[in-house]
Amino acid sequence: MKARTAVVAITALLTTALLWPVWPALSIGAEGSRIGHVPLDSEGGFTVSFIHSLDKLPVEDVYVVRDGRVVQDATRLRQFGAGMGHIPGEGSGHAEGDWWVVSDLDRPIDDFKLRVGSPGADHRLVHPGGEIPLSQCWAGESLTLRPVKLPTLVRLLPTTRPPACPEGTEDASGNETS
Questions:
Q1: Residue 159 in this model has a pLDDT that exceeds 60
Q2: Pseudo-torsion of CA 147, 153, 155, 156, nearest 10°?
Q3: Cα(8)–Cα(14) distance, integer angstroms
Q4: Counting beta carbons within 10 angstroms of the beta carbon of residue 37, is it exposed (0 to 12), middle (13 to 18) or buried (19 or more)?
Q5: Helices marked H in 92-167 — which ranges?
């Protein structure tokens, strides 16, 4: 009887360990449906990069997940363009090589919706596991980015990969997906 109780207890513990949501990730959705998720590291950091529509220079918005919320931590830019730069009283600005960085922004984003620009805008989601070419896959669409915790079992399944371009669009290498 003791052996059976031990087996049941161990099975319950293993099942709980596999199903308990502990791994930080970013869920990506489009038009009310989840299209995938990307793993985050223990700091919960990710970046949305794009080409500014007026000055045509790169911009990188740096985010972290704190207490289950997305928070904009910094912006990196090559020069002050329209709507860009350091707002007095928000964060601190400093040079890093060719970049101007405004850090310590601490701007909570309650409902992170990203209108993905055309391929010329080159929106990309950079995460610890790689990069997703958003403009090549979802140009003109509104994506929702939401912090989640994934169970170990979900992370182990081969079907849980970062989002891929929908069928009929070009992937990062210019090949049409099917």
A1: no
A2: 180
A3: 10
A4: buried
A5: 134-138, 152-156
